[in-house]
Design goal:
TIM Barrel, single chain, 22% strand, binds iron/sulfur cluster, 8-stranded mixed β-sheet, alpha/beta
């Protein structure tokens, strides 16, 4: 079996616990206005790779990342865009005894069957906005599938790290964040929240692809705005980073 892989990173430090071997899979069902990998989402670029080939590469790093308290993270794009490939990679990683994460918007949570999720130790779940109209304006898709997936993960007791990209003027008001924080706290399986300030580092890719970057005039949040957002999550009783 083969899949479309955008790139890999052998020593990732921000996509799960410890040192991660990160596989960026091509393809995504969302169209986030701030996407820093539009070459995997808006344009499905990448290299066709076989499961065996990729697992052989991961195996070369297995001892190192395991000793560093890490594992493998499947990111993207969205790994649930290529569910059969993702399922096979996760199975191979578990056979190597590795800790596994998927980094997903949850929009395609229906593509993750229980057998796949049994091979996932941690879900990095990106909830882009709480208000459905805001979610759609940011991503071009409805919010509900993500919430359905979050509810399912909670029912399974699957550990989740919630990720929230903070976009000033779009999803940074208290009324945008507080209900999401309450919801996340109510799930019981959200181990931590990462508030990620908007940045424009992927902007050049939009230009290269001939796509309009509609957040060009939106400034990244100030440290004070980011701290205020974190405080709202914290006040709901969540661990925040
Ligand atoms: S979910 Fe991630 S990869 Fe997909 S469009 Fe949004 S930011 Fe880009």
């Amino acid at each position: 079996m083969t899949g479309l892989v955008h790139s890999v990173e052998s020593c990732g430090t921000v996509d799960g616990p410890g040192i991660r071997f990160v596989v960026f899979l091509s393809g995504c069902s969302l169209r986030c206005r701030y996407c820093h990998n539009p070459d995997t989402s808006y344009k499905r670029q990448g290299k066709e790779r076989s499961v065996e080939d990729l697992l052989a590469e991961i195996a070369r790093y297995a001892t190192f990342v395991k000793n560093a308290g890490g594992g493998v993270t499947l990111s993207g794009g969205d790994p649930l865009f290529q569910p059969a490939f993702t399922r096979a990679l996760l199975r191979g990683c578990k056979e190597m005894g590795m800790h596994t994460c998927i980094d997903t918007s949850g929009h395609l949570g229906g593509n993750a069957d229980d057998a796949m999720l049994a091979d996932v130790d941690l879900v990095l779940l990106d909830i882009k906005a709480w208000q459905p109209e805001c979610y759609r304006a940011l991503t071009s898709q409805p919010l509900q599938p993500t919430l359905d997936f979050a509810d399912r993960l909670a029912a399974m007791g699957k550990p989740v790290w919630l990720r929230y990209v903070l976009v000033p003027g779009v999803n940074d008001r208290a009324e945008d964040i507080a209900p999401l924080a309450q919801y996340a706290a109510s799930l019981g399986n959200v181990e931590r929240v990462d508030v990620l300030p908007l940045h424009h580092m992927g902007r050049f890719k939009w230009q290269e692809l001939g796509l309009e970057y509609t957040l060009a005039d939106t400034e990244p949040p100030t440290p004070e705005q980011t701290a205020a957002a974190k405080a709202i999550f914290r006040s709901a009783g969540l661990q925040v980073h």
